[in-house]
Amino acid sequence: MKKLLIACFGLLHFYVSAQLPATPDKLYGQLFIDVQMQQILPDGKTFVDCTPKRKVADIMYDYGLQKAAGLDLKKFVTDNFNIPVIPQLNYVQKENDAAAHIKNLWGTLKRDADKTVEGSSLLPLPNAYIVPGGRFREIYYWDSYFTMLGLKESGEAEMIEDMVKNFAYLINEYGHIPNGNRTYYLSRSQPPFFCMMVELLAGIKGKAIYQQYLPEMQKEYAYWMEGAEKMKDPAFKRVVKLPGGTVLNRYWDESTTPRQESYKEDYETAEAVAMELAMRIRVSTPEKLKEILDANKAATYTHLRAGACSGWDFSSRWFTDPNNIHTIQTTNFIPVDLNCLMYSMETIIAKALKLNGKTTLSKSFTSKAAKRKAAIIKYCWNAKTGFFYDYNFAESQQANVISAAGVFPLFVKIATPAQAAGVAKTVTEFLLKEGGIVTTTNKTGQQWDAPNGWAPLQWTTAAGFKNYGNTTLAKTIATRWLALNNKVYQATGKMMEKYNVEDLTQLAGGGEYPSQDGFGWTNGVYLAFKKMYGGKN
Fold first, then answer.
1. How do the domains of the chain map onto residue ranges?
2. pTM higher than 0.85, yes or no?
């Protein structure tokens, strides 16, 4: 009987594993590595988004034969794969009015329900959705909340509902909402805005929406809190236990390999970090050295992937040396913005449970939210500087990077009025620029640092100050951002992924890829701000 149970378990494990969609590295093996490391296609994301022109097994068989005989790798790829088109030029329109352009653009950025394609990395979704634009040819998790703000102003309630349905589908299918609907994104999520999406949709269609999506909201919460009740170590996946038993969250990715869409960049970063370590340590044997360096590389990959999970990929927020990505330590931080979103999740779930008549469980979530609020203030608030910071639990101290994440306690309404006043003073002094809010005060060449500003952070910051009655600062941020968006639109005919908010004569830059246009969350925040504050086109 025991042997039979073991055999049955083995078959079950095989069956479950077989149902997980294969990632490009698993499908294409050495071909994947060769293409990415040789940069046959300049953007590492291109190959992982390709679709095969014929059966994967046939492609791999021929690759094995032809590689042994010598081959033109780029020709092999173009002969055997459909290369995705970069559609930026399609976005250039002739409307003089940016708002009219955006409303017309929804059709360009819309994708209908997907069909399964063998060998594709796309995770098919059952309903229509909006993509950000440019190289981002799939739905993205946290982007979509800000896109929905604009869809609401455009009267696209059905599209919002379709997107919420898609995210609910992903939660039910995979246990969480991945970074985007690609197989190579399944190992991580992004800033958890699903509950806020439900709240947004409920504001349009009524309170029954809370009840409809309560199971998925609870499942997502369980994903983020996995292991919290039985933790033996200080940290496990997405949860961290602090002295006294307080549990907060961090960003995390399940994988310890280079990101497939940025394979070469991550590989080279990890190799450089390992080389630096090798020069500092002395060990008894080459085998021991290899063991240490392999563990170091795996840790670097985890930090890089967790940075991608945060949505801030990359920023000096995650570095111990602001100017050196080799010092990335993302998983050592308790991010203030993430934990504010978790607080919001707990309060919205509590509301939905109450509407469902589950009073006792609702009170439990209200209690969880209250404890989290107290912990955020305890670990992230700095009374001396008047600002909220990330907390480095590995070093038992606050980080010192002033960033737009520090305004999230105002966005979810957990700051006191006095704290909100301190944050306003700090933001005005350090983050407010001519074109809106800068991401951090550090100029590092990373795209989530100065001089760049990003639409979602303009919204959360302005909304945060509006929550505390500081309408003047909220309006200043919004109108400066609108003016910059309009200026760039008039010059280029495009809405951009990010903007240089310090020097309005320059475009934003930095990061692993060129600045993209389209662009989902910029469009959404533009229309939402315009509804609130107007703005000349």
1. 19-48+50-82, 113-224, 260-327
2. yes
